Amino acid sequence: MRTVFHWLVTVLAATGEVVPDLVIYGSTPAAITAAVEASGRGRSAIIVCPEDHVGGMTVNGLGWTDAGNTSAIGGRARDFYREIWKHYRGDAAWKRQTREEYRAKSHKPLIDDDERVMWTFEPHVAEAVFERWLKKAGVKVFRNEWLDRKSGVAVREGRILSIRMLSGREFKGRMFMDATYEGDLMAASGVAYMTGREPNSRFNETLNGIQVANAVSHQFDFPVDPYVEPGNTNSGMLPGVEPGPAGTDGEGDRRLQAYCFRLCMSDHPENRVPFPKPPGYNPRRYELLLRYFQAGWTDWKAISTKYDPLPNRKTDTNNHGAFSFDHIGANHDYPEATYDRRREIIADHRGYQQGLLWFMANDLRVPKSVRNGIAPWGLAADEFKNNGHWPRQLYIREARRMLSDFVMTERHVRRLEPTPDPIGMGSYNIDSHNVRRYVDANGHARNEGDVQVPPGGPYPIGYGSIVPKRSECSNLFVPVCLSSTHAAYGSIRMEPVFMILGQSAAIAADMAISANTDVQSIDKAVLRERLLAALVRLDPTAKH
Q1: What DSSP string describes 222-264?
Q2: Strand order of the sheet with strand 476-477?
Q3: 540 alpha-carbon distance from chain centroid
Q4: What's the predicted TM-score (pTM) here?
Q5: CB count, 10 Å around CB of 539?
Q6: Where are the beta strands (DSSP E) in 140-205?
Q7: Closest by alpha carbon to 127, among 141, 115, 113?
Q8: Which end of the chain is less congested by CB atoms within 10 angstroms, N or C?
Q9: CA–CA gap between residue 257 and residue 396 (Å, rounded)
């Protein structure tokens, strides 16, 4: 592949065309740390993305960082949380509560003054940090540019030469990176990938495929009838319920863990916007929840435990419980869907979640304790102002995952097998949300797919998981939709990890360009040295 690389460099030099060293498609935190790292190493990097606002889920409501063991977070990822800490050091940042009031509100340490890091933040604060980084690094961002997924990737002898957008705009580069949540560039480049859940037998796992026995969290605590006419099996299912049986534990399928929006809510009277009633609101969508209430479940506190506190009396509101913000079963076609179909799926999720809030707050059939519990809350008025105070990004917890020569599996995450060539660490639980709601053998509604299993402590992530097979593409990095099983991705898929892998990929790209070689052939020992010099943490046993 050296020959092809030399050919490309020669052609570009002959034309006098200025071509970026690194073209990044996507605007997730991985894209930002990669671009800033490349710039810091004297490489030209650009970001091309469909979004107006960069930063992915980190700037779209996920302000309660899913960090796991924070000692695993180093490099530019840790720098980000230091920037957050610096922002909230000043009194001016605390408009609706004091710093100490916020400290006392949480059940876990959110502000670490000794380490000078803070793990929670308001969405607009995170976005300001990322935008400041990009401006300082001189990284140009091309926004509202959508990849032509059918014929927009020019590949020659296993190297991407350019990518073309639906606008007709073309971007050439030496190295490319797919930093999207969906893996669109990876797929359009002809790189192999997986979707859904592999059978346990494929990669010698125990937590992949259908999960009935493990699906004990976020589960119905009382029997709930799932039929349109209670007790009438011929009347059809309530919305969102599939017929049974669930199948056999460990068997593979194409289902995905559920998506939702991570809402930024507020209970401050001066910063609270009432929940909107969505167009086409249909209370029938929430009949199953109503029956759950009628069966005896009225534990409002169980729902509100995931109103995780952010500064200034705001929340990162996540799914919690048997029937909540996860739109279970409504996303299985998302990874391969057209842009138009994806917009439909996103709109459906927004309508579902807004309707659920409206239902709980306003439907008189809902227990008064629940209505009273939600009454003080609304959307944060000073967030997402140009989007109805609603997050712009749906939480794509999982879409495509690359299939490369090396695949991260449950066994690597649980440290039952060694991981070659570490480039960063993860540490969060193996955490997969439910994938479907079905009728069990007793004729009751049941959720399936949830897995909550701790890893074997902080664990390394291998370099081979972010680069394709050499035979498929030799100048592409995939730090988000990396080569991983569904089970392993349940732990890896956290925003700090994406920041880490984006930075590590940029360091590797710099090495590949310097050596005029492909991404698979860089010197891994030298890569390790450079990662450690950049303060990327690689050793689970090291003390930091």
Answers
A1: S----BSSTT-TTS-BPTT-B-S----TT--BS--PPPB--B-
A2: 140-142, 45-48, 22-25, 175-178, 476-477
A3: 23
A4: 0.96
A5: 13
A6: 140-142, 153-156, 159-164, 170-172, 175-178, 193-194
A7: 141
A8: C
A9: 9
List pLDDT tens digits, range 438-476. Answer: 999 999 999 999 999 999 899 999 999 999 999 999 999
The Cα 493–Cα 75 span in angstroms is 18
From first CA to last CA, the distance across the chain in angstroms is 39
The two three-digit tokens of residue 179, written as one number: 């930093």
Residue located via tokens 């990874």 = 335
Rounded Cα distance between 20 and 11, Å, is 14
Residues, the chain, total?
A: 544
**Is the separation of the CB atoms in 419 and 412 below 8 Å?**
yes
* Position 306 confidence tier, pLDDT thresholds 50, 70, 90: confident
Helix spans in 141-286 (H): 184-188
Query: Do residues 240 and 258 lie in contact, with contact meaning Cβ atoms separated by under 8 Å?
Result: no
Phi, psi of 354 (to 5 degrees): -65, -40
Cα separation, 108 vs 332, in Å, equals 34
Measure the CA–CA gap between 296 and 322, rounded to whole angstroms: 13
Confidence of residue 1 (pLDDT cuts 50, 70, 90): very low
- 408 touches 482 (CB < 8 A): yes
Rounded Cα–Cα distance for residues 261 and 300 (Å): 20
Domains recognised in the chain with CATH numbers: 2-195+423-431+453-533 (3.50.50.60)
Residue 148 tokens read as: 């032509």
Token pair 């030099």 is found at: 13
Q: Report d(CA 122, CA 63) in Å as an integer.
A: 6
Four-CA torsion 536, 540, 543, 544, nearest 10 degrees: 20
**With the CA atoms of 132, 135, 138 and 142 taken in that order, what torsion angle do they form, in degrees rounded to the nearest 10?**
110
pLDDT tens digits, 72-97: 999 999 999 999 999 999 999 999 99
pLDDT in tens, 402-447: 999 999 999 999 999 999 999 999 999 999 999 999 999 999 999 9
Handedness of CA 350, 356, 361, 365 (dihedral sign): positive
- Give CA–CA dist 378/274, Å, rounded: 5
At a CB cut-off of 8 Å and minimum separation 6, what does 256 contact?
195, 196, 331, 332, 334, 335, 397, 398, 399, 435
